[in-house]
Amino acid sequence: MLTTRKKQKIIKEYQVHEKDTGSSEIQVALLTKQITELIEHLKHHLKDHHSRRGLLKMVGKRKKILNYLKKTNPKNYSALVKKLGLKK
Fold first, then answer.
1. Which domain covers residue 48, as residue numbers?
2. Which of 11, 37, 48, 69 has the most neighbouring CB atoms within 10 Å?
3. Residue 1, helix vs strand vs coil
4. CB-hemisphere CA count at 13 Å for 70?
């Protein structure tokens, strides 16, 4: 689970301007962090199917936001994918 400090650190790193807290870039970065933490949880708890379903929903949501970003701002999309180390 992401703590408030972790979220603030991610927001500071990926924000587009000073007061930005919910841009597509930030949403993708937060979802990516949550996904990696949930993957680590599922490695230890193999039968936690409820969390696995949540993971699949998060991956789908991240994909939708990335597709939106790709359509509206391809330059930021490619930079974000490279920075996060995603396969696209």
1. 4-9+24-84
2. 69
3. coil
4. 8
